[in-house]
Amino acid sequence: MSKLCLADIELPEFRARGPWWGPDLQTLRNALARPQTQLSQYPQKRLTLPVSDDSGDVLLGLLQTPLKATKRPLAVLIHGLSGSEDSAYMLASAQNLLEAGYPVVRLNLRGAGPARPLCRQQYHAGRSEDLRDALKSTHFQDAEGRGLVLVGYSLGANMLLKFLAEFGDGFPIVGACAISAPIDLSAAAYRFLHPRNRGYHWNLLRNMKREALEDGGEVTAAEREAISSASSILDFDDRFVAPRNGYPDAAAYYADNMARRFLTDIQRPTLVIYARDDPWIPAGAYTSYPWSENSNLRPLLAKGGGHVGFHGKGSSIPWHDRCLLRFFDTLVTQRAA
Q1: Measuring CA to CA, which residue among 205, 207, 212, 215 is closest to residue 244?
Q2: pTM of the model as a whole
Q3: Angle at CA 206, nearest 5°, toward 241 and 202?
């Protein structure tokens, strides 16, 4: 069986759906008009997933299965910064995949969502070991037969790409999809300092502080002061995230964990979706990368779509969800041939 050329998989072109014109309305659409999802009909099971660093922390996931049993791979969805299993984009993707016959796990990263009271530590852009540990859990044993497909959004997409390079060969991964990943973490942090992003910046920083200080998180008095007084995401990462995770400063944390430096080593078919008008993530990291040097990567760099927006013509299903489903379906068909 010849290897599938990822460039030959036909994927639709993105065209914005009115009234969501421009990068900001695309980005804000889920907040302004939260998508209606119907997931209560699907059987569900709470998963408790231990990590291996002796912290006692656990991740939580929510497994839902299609109404009709299939042999489709298990889909694992990984949220972004200040997100959780209940983020709008996670719910929309879960519904689309479940309707197509994929069982779905919506994973809460360390200290996120309902896992916050169970964790002393917290996720960050490069904590790929946590995803490795979660997928080693007995809950994923049947994935050996059916395979895995992995989807990451924003910060979770950066973590996913890093994970694929470091640990991907150790798991039965059929394919993966990274959506709006900040593959150059430093460039993204500085982009938030632009005046046009003041509203985004204020809201995201507020959520980051709230999440870090919620019950369950083990922070020292000095860390609490650093969190509370941080004036920017860059400052938050420099004074809290970096030293908490063994880095001297934000620059070192960004350099060590940015996905761009791991892309060459990814050996599993991976769809990388990004909008060139993303208000949060500068396009340079994507447009300057030599994608053709790794045939396991399929870049899909749309002209528009905002940040994890992609509300396109022709369907109420987000464009990125339609693309990733077609990508995974093609890989599953190829695998079965």
Answers
A1: 212
A2: 0.97
A3: 105
**Tokens coding 229:** 């007084």
- pLDDT tens by residue, 5-54: 999 999 999 999 999 999 999 999 999 988 888 899 999 999 999 999 99
CB atoms within 10 A of CB 22: 13
Burial class (CB in 10 A: 0-12, 13-18, 19+), 251: middle
pLDDT digits (tens, 9 = 90+) for 149-198: 999 999 999 999 999 999 999 999 999 999 999 999 999 999 999 999 99
Packed helices 319-336 and 88-99: angle between N→C axes, nearest 10 degrees = 40
Pairing of strands 297-302, 148-153: unpaired
Phi, psi of 271 (to 5 degrees): -95, 125
Q: Which domains are assigned to the chain?
A: 6-184+258-336 (3.40.50.1820), 185-256 (no CATH)
